[in-house]
Structures are given as structure tokens and as C-alpha cells.
Design brief:
Helices cover about 5% and strands about 50% of the residues. By secondary structure, it is mostly beta strands.
Length: about 260
Amino acid sequence: MSISRASRWTAAIVAVLGLWSCSKEGALNTLAPRSAQSLATASSTTQTITIPFDSNNFSTHRPNSFFPLVIGTTWDYRQDTPDGVETNHVVVTSDSKTIENVSVAVVHDVVSLNGTVKEDTFDWYASDKDGNVWYFGEDTKTLLNGQVVSTLGSWEAGKANAQAGIVMLANPMIGDVYQQENSPGVVADMARVKALNQTAVVPYGTLTGCLKTQEWTPIEPGSRAFKLYAPGIGTVMEDENKAGGPVLLTGFSTP
């Protein structure tokens, strides 16, 4: 799920960036361990988490509070960019799709610039029996004047050597590093857990107990993004090292 912001919230944004450096106050959730089969390569500051993909692990889906996939849930985001105001509406649809013998949720993500749709995407996610949320790909279209001009970034696990990645761990710990997307030549996103128990101040409200991650991709050297995830909500803020302000949550609803 991608996300959005507004100039009148600049002061709140600065406050939040300061809060990101606050002390950690313990674990954020009580989900089961990432997996009995997970492999961790540890160092003094990081550990790379590798969970072998097995479609049998999706016979039951354990919810993850940092990445809810309840049908009918919606998120709205806003971002000030050099080109104008970008908004993002995300909804968990009632549709499903089978990928790699797993029934995945279909999430519809529409990005608009100054009220005109510029990107229309369907993302595919599923949580496993432990609560890890896997990313199985996306069908994305870039539009110009209502016409599709690109599908760059589209991929599907099991096709063209693409593999499902993990978008959210069941039991994230500071220093965990994991691959979110893996489609050779298309996407190769990585994430690292940077902090726990953070506070986010966004237009939607003040949210506590947040998880902070850093995300990057070797396909775009130097590109970095920090995200905050609130329990029971999901992504509430994204701040990239690019032009424009951070993406901020403005609305959230559940069925």
C-alpha cells in the first residue's frame, strides 16, 4: 500500500520527525514468532530475516495489526509535491486472486494529482499462519490524460522468476532486515525495522505504539524512505528523500 500530505501540517511533521528518535519502550504486539522455520543472520546491529515460502503456511491467515487486510477497510493520504497536491485512496476489496496456490487479498490503490488520477494499482497480499504479511505483486498502471502510458513496476510472484516478499513481519524487532519485493529487473525493495513504540502526529490524529521502518531498493541507489505503521491501522506516514513533503494519513475507516 502506498500513501499521502498537506502544508498546514508542517509543524506537526517536524514534531514527528523529532519523536522518531525517542527511546524504545518494548514490543508493539503479541503476535506469534515470525516462523519456526525462519532463518536469521545476526550481526551486532541487524539481522536478516529469511522465511522460506510455503503455500501450506497460508491454510489459515493470522491477522497482523500493523498491516490489516479486513475487507472494506479504507485509507486516505495526502502529500504536497512540487507539482501540486497528491492524494491516495486505498481500499481492501472483496476480490481475491490465487497466486502460487495461495488465495491473496486484492487491495485497490489510486493516486491522484490535483484531482486527476495518475496511477491505478491492484496490490496482492496474504498473511500466513504466523501473522507475517506477504506481498505477491501488483498490477500497476500510470495514466496521462486518462490514458495508460506505462505498466512499469507490475510483477507477480511465480512469473518471470519473481518471488513473494514480506511486507510486514509478525513480530518485528529492531534491526530486522527483510525483502519486501523481488522481481529481477523490476523491483527489489528491502526494509529494516528502525524503532518501536513511536508516536505519529498526522491529520488523522495522534497515534502511539507505532513501528518505524526504513525502506530502500538497489534498483534506485540512494533512494530511502521512512515509514510509520500504527497498530490497528497500518501505514500512517511515509517520508522519502525526494522533493515534496511526507505522505500523511488523513482518513481511515473499517467496516
